[in-house]
Write a structure and sequence with these properties.
By secondary structure, this protein is mainly alpha-helical. It is built from five helices and no strands. Helix 1 packs across helix 5. The longest helix has 16 residues. The chain is globular, with a radius of gyration of 12 Å. The relative contact order is 0.20.
Length: about 90
Amino acid sequence: MEKSTLADPREAEHLTEIADIVADLLSTTPERAAAAEDLLADFGIDSLVLIELFIRLERRYAVSISEDNITAVTSLRSVYEIVAERAGWLA
């Protein structure tokens, strides 16, 4: 994994956890989820699946994620950045 440029010292751990959540939801491996350049296209994700993903992330990290963020989801990194912003990991 690339060296982190973000303020989250636990970035790799968080990325792994989020990959596990995404993989479980999509019935795939964390490696495939992490490697996907476009989660929506690669896995045929629709808005209902994204809402379920947000619910799981909200429960795991005690954050609130707006449905407005659906359009920002492209990759595992984008999911991480949404959660990181809400959780204050980037501060």
